Structures are given as C-alpha cells and as structure tokens.
Amino acid sequence: MQISTFTPNNNTNKPAFGIKIDGKVAMKICDEMYGQKLTKHMPAYEKQFDKLSASGLDSSELYLATGRDYDTFMLKNPEITTAYEKPIAQAKKGDLLSAWFKIQPEDIEKAEKILKEVIEEKRKGLVAMADNVIVRALLYTKNNEKDVVKAVQKMDDDTVIDLYYTAKSKIAGK
Predict the structure, then answer these.
(1) C-beta neighbour count of 96 within 10 angstroms
(2) Of residues 160, 136, 157, the one with CA closest to residue 148
(3) Which end of the chain has a smaller Cβ tally under 10 Å, C or N?
(4) Is the pLDDT of residue 156 over 60?
(5) Rounded CA gap, 94 and 34, in Å?
C-alpha cells in the first residue's frame, strides 16, 4: 500500500484562495442530513461547500452561531476587523441545510465589504469629531500623535470603536 503525502502540487481540489469554513458547520449540516434522512443532498452540499470555499478572502471564516431557536451563519475576518462579525444567513433549528443552500458567494463578498465599511466609517467619524477639543485630547493621549489622521490610523479596531463611542457621548453630553 502506498500513501501519498500532502504537497501543494498534489492537492488540486483545494483553492489557493477563499474563506475557511469552520468544521462545526459541516458536522452540524451532516448531522441534520443523516438525522432527517436527507443524504441524497450530500453531493449538492459538497458542491455548495466547494463553491463557498472558493469565494471571499482567505482570512475570512464562515462559522455557525447557535441560539435557542435559530442558528446563524456568521462571517468573521480578523484582518478586516476584530470588533465586528456579519451574519450571512439564519436558520430555524432543523432547517440548517436549507439556509446553507441559500448562501451565495456574493453574500460572503458583500459581508466582507460591509465589515470594511463599518470600521472605516468609525475611523472617519472619529477624525471628524476631532474638531472637538475633548475628542482631540482623547486621541492625543492614546498614542502621542499630533496628527489626528495618523493617530486614528495607528489605533487597532477595538480602540477606534471605544474612542468613537466615547467621543460621541462626550460631544452629546456637552
């Protein structure tokens, strides 16, 4: 018996780009298919898996957030922002497979775009609020940078978001 080793050259089924799909997603969907005797949908599930795996950024991940009544397919990308995640599709308990088939590659790309826009909106908003003396002082004390734009760009997402909402409350309270 010969065992082939993994090398990038002999693994032609895996794209060089695209999102990661959390293993729990596959496990839950397969459990549902087998539990409801829907295994006839396995080839379609695999095709959808391949299609979604090839879409989006390779730093993104599709995972499943479970709730009491619903499960939600979520997208996260720590290279875009660590502060936000985007829901892609929601399914009632026992209807995960149906929601899985509704997800399109465009949904993933749209979610990534929204994540980028949301963090950029907070950065621009913080810069715009820097006209306020209190907000400007908050920015200067965070990283000793006198240029507001540079100060905001140097901050990580969580700091930007915290300062954004702190600044909004300072301005509103004044």
Answers:
(1) 22
(2) 136
(3) N
(4) yes
(5) 12
pLDDT digits (tens, 9 = 90+) for 99-138: 999 999 999 999 999 999 999 999 999 999 988 888 888 8
CA gyration radius for the chain? Answer: 22
Measured in degrees and rounded to the nearest 5, phi and psi for residue 75 equal -115, 130
Can you count the helices (H) and strands (E) in the chain? 7, 4
Q: Which of 52, 64, 143, 140 is nearest to 101 (CA)?
A: 52
Strand order in the sheet with 70-77: 20-21, 61-66, 70-77, 81-92
Interhelix angle 105-129/157-173, nearest 10 degrees: 50
Q: What is the token pair recorded at 119? A: 């963090």
CA–CA dist 55, 52 (Å, integer): 5
**Contact criterion met (CB below 8 Å) for 12 and 51:** no
φ, ψ (nearest 5 deg) of residue 59? -95, 0
